[in-house]
Amino acid sequence: MTSTISPTGFISKRAKQRLIDTLRQKGIQNEAVLSAIADSPRHDFVEEALKSRAYEDKALPIGYRQTISQPYVVALMTERLLGKQSRLRAVLEIGTGSGFQTSVLSKLVDRVYTIERVGPLFRRAKEYFSEQGINNVFLRHADGTAGWPTRRPFDGVIVTAATPQIPEALFAQLIDGGTLVAPEGQEGKQKLSTWKKTGQQFQHQSFRDVTFVPLETGVEH
Ligand code: SAH
Questions:
Q1: Which domain holds residue 43?
Q2: Total domains, the chain
Q3: What pTM was computed for the model?
């Protein structure tokens, strides 16, 4: 490599390595997940004024009362979604937001279907994936509580906004053996939870307190 690395690029490379070290220290073990995060430029998903903080292990505002998730939580949810598998075929994500979690998934999943209810966030993410030539991400501007019935079934479903009651449609659109990951609960007291589907039965596990913005209904244009 020659001298064309920009000051920002240079800083972000070191900061990114520190972030990956932090994720390891916090217990993330799946190397494929760590590589997918290392390959996702988080500074592309935050506004100009926050770029210098993009590699902190913190949630940051993205406008429209929403946040980009904390990298550790993105890593943890992705790890739980994958389970023992190294790659999944199709995943449904509810809450595209900045598109950072989507970008991480796009490196580990053949096809990522992602739904966002806030118009400007949807359009920004759509433009980003198209500009980057990432063609295994399919975006939709809709209320994700109904899932994406015409693209079902999914090997995994990931919900990145909190709700006390996971919408029934999302369970219905999972394959047998599939996993749903979501922050479960009311504002202020949520637990990261997984549901593993076996036939019509679900094995439920709650494993960590988290803070997410709420899952809302309807769309904003
Ligand atoms: N994974 C995202 C998280 C964004 S915050 C990131 O790291 O950037 C959660 C997102 O869920 C917000 O963008 C919010 O608008 C969206 N959301 C909330 N309820 C929704 C619903 N019913 N359908 C689709 N998106 C929803």
A1: 13-210
A2: 1
A3: 0.95
